[in-house]
Design a protein that fits this description.
Strand content: over 45%
Helix content: under 10%
Mean pLDDT: 94
Low-confidence stretches: none
Number of helices: 0
Order of helices and strands: EEEEEEEEEEE
Number of strands: 11
Length: 124
């Protein structure tokens, strides 16, 4: 059974940093990407950053380029999202997800499995 368990969310002031972790287990599909999505109240879920299983290529949404960094530790089956210079508009529930489709990060409907989400709030 696929399990994606996120941790690391919380309340942070603007300009601060957080690191999200996603512990993954139970994969039975030949996944192509694993990554992070977010959803703010009243908005659609969007891809934030993904990393491929094949060559470690990464994708970042324009809104987070230069501020966020995705990485993975294959030995621990864990994916991280380092978030720096956080802004109030980064406030959202962040979800870890995995997909067999390489375009899932730009089209969340292609995601195969979702984690339960972790809340990130950026506020002074």
């Amino acid at each position: 059974q696929v399990q994606l368990v996120e941790s690391g969310g919380g309340l942070v002031q603007p300009g601060g940093s957080l690191r999200l972790s996603c512990s993954a287990s139970g994969f039975t599909l030949d996944w192509h990407v694993i990554g992070w999505f977010r959803q703010a109240p009243g908005k659609e879920r969007e891809g934030v950053s993904c990393i491929t299983n094949t060559d470690g290529s990464t994708y970042y949404a324009d809104s987070v380029k230069g501020r966020f960094a995705i990485s993975r530790d294959n030995a621990k089956n864990t994916v991280y999202l380092q978030m720096n210079v956080l802004k109030p508009e980064d406030t959202a529930t962040y979800f870890c997800a995995v997909s067999s489709d390489p375009f899932a990060c730009i089209k969340p409907s292609l995601v195969n499995y979702w984690g339960q989400g972790t809340q990130v709030t950026v506020s002074s």
